[in-house]
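Reviewer 2 asked us to include a model.

Predict the structure of this chain.
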Amino acid sequence: MANRVVITGMGAVCALGDNIEDIFIAAEKGTCGIDYADQFDREKISDVYFAAEIKDFDPSKYINKREARRLDRFCQYAIYAGMQAWDDSGLTEFDPYRVGTILGSGMGGLNTVCEQYDTMANNGVNTVSSLFITKSIINIAPGMLAIKLGLNGPCYGIVTACASGTDALGQAFRMIKDGSLDAVLVGGAEGVIGDLAIQGFNQMQALSNAESADRASIPFDKERKGFVMGEGAAFLVFENEEIAKKRGANIYGEICGYGQTCDAHHITAPKEDGIHAAKAMEMAVKEAGIDFSEVGYINAHGTGTPLNDKTETLAIKTCFGEHSKDLLISSTKSMTAHMLGAAGSMEAIFTILSLKESVALPTINLKVPDEECDLDYVANKSKKMDTDYAISNSLGFGGHNSTILFKRY
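Predicted model (structure tokens):
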């Protein structure tokens, strides 16, 4: 018999705050975390002005100054959010071989790679830091969390571009469901706002070139032109329900479905009919064993690129049919911007808390309706909702489509 999987701990840091309470309150109010960027050269990089940066980040609660110097920014974010989630779970007695650590990240320590290349080019090969490799590789973040907490179960990183965070959650869910593990500390982290990543996406014409913050990240708006880069991390503790109940854990919600497909179509563009993204949603709903009409809310991938939002809308219609008109749909990227590999785990937390608090978060700055995006995107102001089931979508370069389904507990 399959195990039920619940969420017993959560932690996050992003442009909206450094804990889930403040972040969710800010999102419910429709706070925009996007501002003029400081981490890349706005004069050198033409037409890109904004990002959702974490200002005045202080990791000292979990990372001392010496340790911080040895870790890339994405890894600091991961440790901060991961330790928050672990503390929140109250999990103290466990078999260390039955607790895993999984992290999703799209680009990992890219800024460290840039810094070290510049050091070598300017000062010679012998000036490359002995910490270069460990600061830049993605799996060092879950490895550091496992070291800090003494977790001896499976520990690894997942890379599926902007679907990485959601796929990390899906893999954790499956390992607890099938009995391989009792719990998993799982999430996503990203911290690559800098000249190279920004210009790389800019060369692809993927980034917004808006000249005001309130028109920069505008998912589902007819005037959308691209996404805005965000950063941060979000972690959750997934746990076998029976064990969680036995120890009296606080349970935020239940995860009960996961769908994962590949468009096998184009290296960056989604398949325009949205059929494979629709299939991922269908798989998650069917695994949960519920009717499609029971899903009431979707936290959409909703990047604000012209093709993504149109395709995701079509995918939702394909999956849910007439019921799609009754769904409440949010793109919280309108507030956090696009956190890349951390997006899925951050949006999972938003989805779980939306169910718990019976509120659909807004898609802010949605002002100009688009006839091709004609569903209810909870424009500009949060709405009360009454549903027991919600899904979170993530789509990634390479054709990755991932959906996770949560249940109110």
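The chain has 13 helices and 14 strands. The chain has a mean pLDDT of 97. We have added this to the supplementary material.
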